[in-house]
Amino acid sequence: MKNTPFTHIHQKLGAKMAPFAGYNMPIEYSGLIDEHITVRTGVGVFDVSHMGEFWVKGEKALDFVQKVTSNDASVLTPGKVQYSCFPNGKGGIVDDLLVYCYEPQKYLLVVNAANIDKDWAWCNSQNDLGVVLENASDNTAQLAIQGPKTIETLQSLTDIDLSKIVYYTFVTGKFLGCEVILSATGYTGSGGFEIYMRNEDAVKIWDAIFEAGKPYGIKPIGLGARDTLRLEKGFCLYGNDIDDSTSPIEAGLGWITKFVDHKNFIDKNVLLEQKNKGVTRKLVGFSMIDRGIPRHEYPIVDASGNEIGKVTSGTMSPMLKVGIGMGYVKTEFSKLDSEIFISIRGKNLKAKVVKIPFL
Question: Which fold has domain 280-354?
């Protein structure tokens, strides 16, 4: 297992550690609910150094990004970020990712930790345009500082005006004298920033952030709360809600799948046909009516007990105090307020399809 530059700190703080995506990662510190509420109401810090970072450079950098991703990167200007996915050539998804535009011939692709090797092999296999690909994953540390008290916590540590970094933008500059990337693409829906840094600067930055955050009740947050936070906002998790067998159209990601004349991307025709003809299943959000906690892979059934789908993500919402989840269902059951049932330990418990985000 790999360690991040912060692993020894997590262990010293008594975090519950577990393997995740080949890394030794903190799952929980003070407790999932406490950590979740900390991010919703104050400020929390996630070690996300396990994420992958690929640079794309060269004259054909934009052409390459346009080819391998579903969204239209031509609309990006330097300092802008875009959510996208890699179509896999078979109508499914290699991974979802963030595309950072540095300049017309330089892009940063931020990919999921569990898919770094797979994504790297995929990008290289599709590089017939002569672009320079650089895998910077092992040399880059990353912290996500999330919650409504994030700006107050961080502003004293940098001359960068954090109030100017709006959602899905980034800047480069100095943080505690260290060269960093500061972005606002949070996976919690509670505001905040991500700081990309060199490994050698990581501990210095961690210590300073926690000192500055003391007046705001700052806490380290584990991957357990990261999952419940993202689910309350209806953000997809690769490996649960999307994977190589799900299309972006089925997953409700049509908004990051751009069918424009100037962009020819992998699976464009397949996905366009799905958009025009419709799909047989759709990813929906649902809220429990009967008391119960939905979990990954639980069957979704109709009123007669016939299986109509599967839960992909589920939890008891710490903020709403009700079971919530996402799952694929037959299209006829995907309309808002449709009655569905989640099969939990042999009982079919009533739920209804609701609008995402839940919170």
Answer: Elongation Factor Tu (Ef-tu); domain 3 (2.40.30)
